[in-house]
Structure formats: C-alpha cells, structure tokens
Design a protein that fits this description.
128 residues, three-stranded parallel sheet
Length: 128
C-alpha cells in the first residue's frame, strides 16, 4: 500500500528507518519487558514477519511473556493470519475501505476490501 495519508511515510516510502538483526530485536523486546511495558506492539509488520518470528523464537525462551499485538493496515492474506495462530494475542487491524474505488484512489490497493474482509474473518476465527 502507498496511502496518501501515511503517518509512517518517511519510514515506509523514503527508507529512513534503520535495520537491526533479529538477535538485537529480541534484546529490544526483552528490554521493553523488563521496563514494565504492557505489550509488544508490532506496527505494520507484514513485510518483516520472518525476522519478527525469528526474534520471538530467541526472546521467548529468555523470558519474554508480554502479549503480542499485530497492528496492521488490514491488507493481509488470510493465509498469513493463519500462520500467526497461537503467536499473536491481539490483532489491531484497520478496516479502511469498503469500496474498491476508494482503496484504489487513496492507497493504490484496488482489492483492499476483499483482502481486508477475508483477513478480518480469519482473525475472528482465531481470537474471537
């Protein structure tokens, strides 16, 4: 997606973020846990999901017990949501558009409504 109103524009479209290794991400998660954070909120994580899962596989045996929040724009494959069963505790997913014309005009994602509905149904099956 490339939403015209993106609040993460400089990271998602101008590449101004920074890369970290999976081990470092695991350490960051554990540090947040030790600081008393209430959850690990994974924001727009779909494109780096393999690295996140690797980080979790390192952090959980070392004591990470925080709930995991999957905070997504809602343009997800139901098959991907299925992969997260038993891993993600809370899904915080947008439902931005009900019409293809709007999703095409504002997010360059003409098929957003169909993918979004299917993902929401899969999430509801998993976590209610």
């Amino acid at each position: 997606m490339s939403c015209v109103y993106c609040q993460n524009y400089k990271f998602s479209q101008l590449n101004q973020g920074r890369e970290i290794e999976s081990r470092k991400l695991a350490v960051c998660m554990l540090e947040l846990h030790n600081l008393g954070c209430h959850n690990i909120n994974l924001v727009t994580p779909t494109h780096i999901l393999p690295q996140i899962l690797k980080s979790l596989s390192l952090a959980i045996p070392l004591g990470l017990k925080l709930p995991l929040v999957y905070n997504s724009g809602g343009y997800e494959l139901p098959e991907l949501i299925s992969l997260l069963e038993g891993i993600v505790d809370i899904f915080l997913v947008d439902m931005r558009y009900a019409e293809n014309s709007a999703s095409s005009a504002y997010s360059n994602a003409r098929d957003y409504p169909e993918y979004n509905r299917a993902a929401i149904l899969k999430i509801q099956q998993q976590v209610g």
